[in-house]
Amino acid sequence: MIKNFEIETSDGLKKLQIEIAETFFSRLRGLMGRKKLPQGHGLLLSPCSSVHMLFMKFSIDVVYVDKNFVVKKIVKNLPAWSGVSICLGAESAFEFSAGESDRLNLKIGDKFIFPSK
Questions:
Q1: Between the CA atoms of 27, 78, 49 and 70, what dihedral angle is there, to the nearest 10 degrees?
Q2: Distance between CA 57 and CA 65 in Å, rounded?
Q3: Which terminus of the chain faces fewer neighbouring Cβ atoms within 10 Å, N or C?
Q4: How many helices (DSSP H) and strands (DSSP E) are in the chain?
Q5: Structural domains in the chain?
Q6: Whole-number Å distance between alpha carbons of 33 and 100
Q7: pLDDT tens-place string over residues 101-114
Q8: Other Cβ atoms within 10 Å of 4 Cβ, number
Q9: Residue in 102, 11, 8 with CA at minimum distance from that of residue 61
Q10: What's the predicted TM-score (pTM) here?
Q11: H helices of 11-115, where?
Q12: Is 90 helix (H, G, I), strand (E, B) or coil?
């Protein structure tokens, strides 16, 4: 299921299309088998406080958030087959193609918003 999100950063709101993985198997699969994500697209793993890179075909940025979708940690350019990334206390994680967190100018404390309309 794909949902529209916005991210509130220091330089304004940016719109994103986020696929949501909330079952055990959809979270385990994550982005495995895909070649890349388009700009402005991501995957939300919920609940999630760690990600693995086994069987991945491309590097990703991982953005860990708390229960209010406030950014706690950003892991940039996590290479395919590199193991795992962990953020203790994270509620969920957004995965983007590598470089997307820089393009969006994401910082710790920024907030993802699920528009009600």
A1: -110
A2: 24
A3: C
A4: 2, 9
A5: 2-113 (2.60.120.1140)
A6: 19
A7: 999 999 999 999 97
A8: 12
A9: 102
A10: 0.91
A11: 24-29, 100-103
A12: coil
